[in-house]
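Protein 1 of 2
SEQ + STRUCT:
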Amino acid sequence: MEESLMIILDTDVIIELFKNNPKIKEKIAGFNLDELAISVITVAEILHGAINKTELAKINKHLSLYKILDIKEEISAICINLMKKYCLSHRPYVQDLFIASTSLYH
């Protein structure tokens, strides 16, 4: 059985898509929508940036295009291990580690 491809988009990629960045749009155009996913952390970060109801509605419509990946217990464990490994050397942001952990899990 062939494994299906899943591309997990980072928050920065979604922001660039909102800005209609042609380079990002071109790269994403090579994939089917059912191959694209985002972390629930990305959803929260993007919603946090909404400045009014009109923008919030646009954001909700755009985010609904992607499969949203929840945080499972295994993802939390990966995140904690990454934080233990890199907290002193790289000072990573928690939300970035959760997105990275989601990608590693899937």
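Protein 2 of 2
SEQ + STRUCT:
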Amino acid sequence: MEARIAKLAPGLAALHASPWCGSIEEVGTGSWVQALLQSVAGASASLAIGRSSYGRDVQAHLYGAFERSIARATVESWARQNLASGPHRFALAISGAVASPLQRGDQHAWLALACSDGRGRTLHLRCREPLRLQQ
């Protein structure tokens, strides 16, 4: 695992040196993406806000009511709202169930990226391994 993360260091350093700065809302993932960004010096240049609004009450307060937190429409809404709330170039919203002792295959996540130039992407991930560190 450490070797795989170490291979990402040059790309993370390049991101930190770029003008791209934004926010991340990460729920149900153990804040893994934020921790990864912060594993290389200079993260404050690219990560203006890193949040993990895990409680549904907090999510509703920040983003309004929604039916499910692990849903495409939810993360797209979070990303758009976070992009509009500050002078960011991007907002990434992630919500998932990526760690579970159950073997039912329900480990998955939705990711939504909104960029200040109007671009955006949404991605649905199926996690094949039951434990986060194995994925």
